[in-house]
């Protein structure tokens, strides 16, 4: 049995606020669906961040509906969980649930798996760090116990079911700054852990999970927090054949993506390099995107800007930075449209100030809570004009959630645990 594992679609996102980039996302998502159909998959899993915004544009809704309808006509079921981009901070019903109610896709739940032939699929929506224990860890242990009992029954009956767990969470094992749980937090008993959240393609088997395969297919295109680069994107075909004890995967590259490149150029070589770059761009069906880092001394930005105008006809978008002669990273950017990632910058500043990852997570959760006007449950008792009331509320919040901020195992975060 083959299934498709696709994640981090971010439909509706327009990189650099360009309509062409929004359309690019719809095209590569369509390519992933078309390739899945051609591979005769039995089902498709969407592992979260289906939309880029919890209140997506009409275009994003229509384009998703079009692809789901196509799969419905081919009798290929679609199963999904929600990522943080799909979940509104208010009490609104998440938009993807509309497609569940229309019968075009089915939401996954942790307590009632769906079954396709000899395959069971469980799923959890995204959980914030402040609710990891209640929302994930405790339910994980419950599922683990259920699966252990089921396995004993199946062994006695000589009838084996393969099992998939779908999550949209980051693992500290792969990224110590963006993680939320560890691999050994995951429930044992699953053959395949269909992950979303990380935009890079990652696969690893863990001995603590009885060699269960944990896999992130990566995003289908460059996201809002990714720099311009010549990186490949795609999705996973997952082979759950009964003949094989292990789950096998094949990563499928998406060919219709708009190419993005970065070049570092010595200023004296600029004219020759620009001619070469323009010639190279002609081979692509879509105008590429380019990021230039110009190295040199005494460069006049106004003159350089005029020299780079020749790129406008060959590239959809270009960005440039001047690097000093002694500089190896960074530089001065003259790109006024480059996005500023507030969450990333805030995290970096707080970490530098507090020198503590748990306290940084706590600070970010509190900041998000105070800026969340739609969450009446968190804010209904706060009088923001009274310092004592705020202080008492903060202390109560910390006391109720301190286990989430004090139980990070630094040895595992630093990669000292080599058991896997």
Question: Can you characterise this structure?
Answer:
This protein folds into three domains: 2-253, Metallo-dependent phosphatases (Purple Acid Phosphatase, chain A, domain 2), CATH 3.60.21.10; 260-333; 349-413, no CATH class. 34% of the residues lie in helices and 19% in strands. The chain contains eleven helices and 16 strands. It has helices at residues 19-38, 58-73, 96-101, 132-157, 270-281, 301-307, 342-354, 357-370, 376-379, 387-406, 410-413, and strands at 2-6, 43-47, 78-81, 106-107, 114-116, 119-123, 162-168, 192-196, 202-206, 212-216, 234-239, 248-253, 260-266, 289-295, 317-323, 332-333. It has a six-stranded mixed sheet with strand order 4-3-2-1-11-12. A six-stranded mixed sheet has the order 5-6-7-8-10-9, with no helix packed on it. It has a four-stranded mixed sheet with strand order 13-14-15-16, with no helix packed on it. The relative contact order is 0.11. InterPro entries: Calcineurin-like_PHP, DNA_Repair-Maintenance_Comp, Metallo-depent_PP-like, Mre11_N.
